[in-house]
Amino acid sequence: MIVIQGYNRGMSIIRGDRILLERRSSHINQGELAAAVGVNPSYISKIESGKAGNVGINVINAIADALGVSVAYLLGLSDDPLSGVEEEDEDLVIRESSVVYDAMGTTERRIIELLPRLSDSDKFLILQTVERLANNAPHVIG
């Protein structure tokens, strides 16, 4: 566990704001992150708001893995989210992403290619629409 002078012995200093930002940019909610880490969603909320107190290294490692960032970044020791992440890990992510992309159809690939051109609000609108369609919810067009 990393200890910073001036803080209680054994207390980890985790940047909850970085967890929140990375979680949101990954488009996952607290419940999904909690499930991936193996903790309660309320604990993720406390970590993000800085109210969790002592966060164990196993939880920090699990959060870093789930969000695809380094522990050093979550602890505020680096401003680079991938600082300290092994190149092998980055290569694995790229290979896995490539496999997923290759398995997509033409329409799915076109959607992925166009997404960077859209505003965040447009992306959110598309996400809501796709979720409604996927859940066979009634929808109104127009």
Label this structure with key terms.
434 Repressor (Amino-terminal Domain); 142 residues; mainly alpha; 0% strand
Tell me what the structure shows.
It is a single chain. With 142 residues, the chain is an all-alpha fold. The chain has two domains: 1-85, 434 Repressor (Amino-terminal Domain) (Orthogonal Bundle); 87-134, no CATH class. The protein is 58% helix and 0% strand. The protein is built from eight helices and no strands. The chain has helices at residues 16-25, 30-37, 41-49, 57-67, 71-74, 87-103, 106-114, 120-134. Helix 1 (16-25) crosses helix 3 (41-49) and helix 2 packs across helix 3 (41-49). The longest helix has 17 residues, at 87-103. It is globular and about 50 Å long. It starts with 15 loop residues before the first helix and ends in an 8-residue tail after the last helix.
